[in-house]
Design brief:
With about 400 residues, this protein is α/β, with parallel strands linked by helices. The protein is built from eight helices and 20 strands. It has a domain of about 120 residues.
Length: about 400
Amino acid sequence: MSQATSLLRAGAARVTITPTAPVTLAGYGSRKDVSRGIHDPLSARALALEEDGRRLVLVSTDSLGFYGGTAARFRRAILEATGLAPSELFLAAIHTHSAPDVASDHPNNVRYVKTLEANLVGVVRRALARLAPVRMGIGIGASPVGANRREVVPDAGGKTRIVLGRNPSLMTDREVQVVKIARADTGGLVCVLFDYATHSTSLGPRNYLVSGDVHGLAEQFLERRIGGGVTAPAFAGASGDIDPWFRIRPGFDTRRGWVPEPILLGTMLGEEVAHVLDRIEEAEAAGPIRTAFETLRLPGRPHGKGKAARPDDGVEFNLTVGRAGDVAFVGLGGEVFNEIGRAIKEASPFPHTLVITHCNGAAGYLPTAPSYAEGGYEPESSAFAPTAARKVVRAAVRLLRQVRRA
């Protein structure tokens, strides 16, 4: 990793965002009731990086995503309160399907969203207020927690169709990327950021307990395991077609010593992060911070198919790119297939590129071009035309090269 030309500073903060009243949960339209309790707490976690007056703030929120226009609302509030430039803020959700629905008009949800906005502003402010000299390192692991969910099954006519299930033969990005932030003076840990590609849908529509699911439980495991007030924000990699190995379970089954699947998978992911962290022997100084933000207008599907606008109108998609030395971050404002994330990482001019989805937007599924002919839930519900994925990869690589040169 290249040496810094000036001092890298960082600060981290965490705030509880668990609902205090029953709320409508997000992620499954078949739910008809409000939540019935709290299994584990929800949090928002922020890591602020600063070098030579340039800032990069990554926020991980234990939420499904910023639907119903809340991405723009929350970003506006944070930017106004902190003076961050639009490109300097990565506001992301871990995509748990057991968190409050921020787009719901239920009175309890409306109140929750107002409080959430204040909490997001507060956690970013606290992270920025704690800036101190640090060193940064990165390590890479792998996990089997996620599996490609586009399962091929025969239909009644003897042909095949794609359903949401488990298809281990298809591509899955198993990489676990871990960023270590340690104090420059003492070497003490400040933050352990990790990125892994899976939906957090180990819990299904019959679950009415609030939970962070796979990513959230991994965060909680790490913060307990490491201790010392260390913050461990998780980010969902490109996982539009990846689900947990055990998916849509009805709840936390503890009968006869059974380990509930969300806890099993979240702990497995957290333990891999911990193992990788132990192998990052010495965090290094980072190089410059640079950021870029662009709202792409991508081709939409023909009117009347999926949720699309007309092709000539286009569909907006937010793309955010940042670097801290030799580590790059790509924020994608939707649910992106893992092949797209892999293509960005492989073409990136940086040795390490973290792809973060559900970031600064909620444009829905962005599938690969071949998946449209195959069919299935994701391409059928996508607002984008088959050519959109290629345009996103090209734009992301272009911005990565831009921040690399800057």
